[in-house]
Amino acid sequence: MISWNYSNARAQLSTIMDQASAGHPVEITRRGKEPTVIISKASYEAYKKAEYEQICQKSNEKN
């Protein structure tokens, strides 16, 4: 995973968006704060779909 500090990330937002869109998650760190990860919309949607399917599967196992 590519990692940027907050100050550099602000100056290079377009580059970071290009990296994320190309399928490379980007971590942004800030001193004293929890890091953030930027991913493409397609990756996010795939994650949400997998999460939903897992919740449905667990729900079906309980019944």
Automatic annotation (TrEMBL):
Q: Which domain of life is it from?
A: Bacteria
Give any Pfam family that matches: PhdYeFM_antitox
Q: Which InterPro entries match?
A: Antitoxin_Phd/YefM (IPR006442), YefM-like_sf (IPR036165)
Q: What biological function has been recorded for the protein in this entry?
A: Antitoxin component of a type II toxin-antitoxin (TA) system.
Q: Which family does it belong to?
A: Belongs to the phD/YefM antitoxin family.
Protein name per UniProt: Antitoxin
Organism of this sequence: Acinetobacter courvalinii
Q: Taxonomic lineage per UniProt?
A: Bacteria, Pseudomonadati, Pseudomonadota, Gammaproteobacteria, Moraxellales
